[in-house]
Amino acid sequence: MVARFAVVGVVLALASLLESADACCPVSRFQVPVVNADQSVIILWDAEAKTQHFIRRASFKSDGDDFGFLIPSPAQPELSESGNEAFPLLAKLTEPETITRPRPISFGCGVATMRDAAPGLAWSGGVKVLEQKTVAGFNASVLEAKSATALVQWLKENGYHYSREVEAWAKPYVDQGWKITALKVAKDKETLDKTVNAAALRLSFKTDRPLFPYREPEYKGVNDTLGIKSRTLRIYFLADARYEGELTKEQPWSGKVVWSGKVTAKDRSKLLEHLKLPELTGPRQWWLTEFEDDWSYQGAPADVYFSRAAKQATLKRPPIVQYVSNTRGGAWSLALMAAAACVPSLASRWRRA
User: Fold this and answer.
1) CA pair distance 237, 202, nearest whole angstrom
2) Is residue 114 part of a domain?
3) Residues 191-205: tens digit of each pLDDT
4) How far is residue 135 from each of residues 72, 132, 174, 205, measured CA to CA in Å?
């Protein structure tokens, strides 16, 4: 059976239990709204070992002062700190090429005029605590629950609020015996900004197919309350080849490929260093595919699964053309070009005279 992975947040009910943390899909304390804002994700897929390394850097919007998160996974995950430096490096690798050209000029001979072009632990009450640790600023507890009811009771006893929407979302995962990682996070009370920028945390787990947790609890009116109209999901997918994402057969995923190509050995080593992973992690030759998605706040029917693409073609962003003023270095060349352009017109006038 294909393993699935999803992420959802739950609120912290007791501020005294809070510690600095990162998270994924949230809800808020005492029904105060919290939703995912823009997200950047790195997925490193090791097809041979059937292991996915999932690194998320996300921001959240909330009117509350504190909230927490649940991360279900098909197998017990290994939680580790992962550096944020990998994200700007990947963005640099996939940025469009900048082409500099001299600004076209009109020669003024009455011939032709050129125009500028536009740039483009043990069981207790039905819950077993498998691991508790502080990692990357997270206070994390990896849980195994015998039932959704037992999980809810554990969350309440440990300072979490578990809403009806979250319970409905999580029940299928809990019923299938997946492990639940509970995290805690607190906003900076000294600032008035509603945005929480989370640090990167890596979850490594076994799965038959690589995936992104696209499903979320369905909250009504939350986005209007927080004034959020849109968000961007960016996935850097590293594997042995170009991959494509699928939601369901009936409903295609809205994510689009904006860049796809091989990663050099030098950049591969740099990325592994930033991600704090061993040199032998994943395939020897990496292929990077960048997906960009205008993620809707509507409920999704499934998670996004990835598979090897039928066409292994490279794709680059369109280049950015920058026009610059002509400098002295090219003055003589431009003068000669202007003279040459004017000769036919002047000769014609001389013959008529």
Assistant:
1) 14
2) no
3) 555 555 556 889 999
4) 17, 10, 24, 16
Domain count, the chain: 1
Closest to 79 (Cα-Cα) out of 40, 135, 121: 135
* Domain-embedded: residue 118: no
Q: pLDDT tens for residues 20-29?
A: 333 354 434 4
What's at 62, amino acid-wise? S
Q: Quote the domain boundaries for residue 166.
A: 8-97+123-352
Assess if residue 103 is contained within a domain: no
Counting Cβ atoms within 10 Å, is residue 108 exposed (0-12), middle (13-18) or buried (19+)?
exposed
Nearest to 290 by CA among 269, 316, 264, 271: 316
Q: How many helices (H) and strands (E) does the chain have?
A: 6, 20
Reported pTM:
0.73
The model's pLDDT over 150-194, given as tens digits with 9 standing for 90+, comes to 888 888 888 776 677 777 778 888 888 888 888 876 555 555 555
In angstroms, rounded to a whole number, what is the distance separating the alpha carbons of residues 129 and 179?
10
Q: Tell me the sheet residues that pair with 46.
A: 51
Q: Do the domain assignments include residue 35?
A: yes
Number of other CB atoms surrounding residue 63 within 10 Å: 13
Residue with structure tokens 């510690």? Answer: 19
Pairing between strand 98-102 and 320-324? parallel
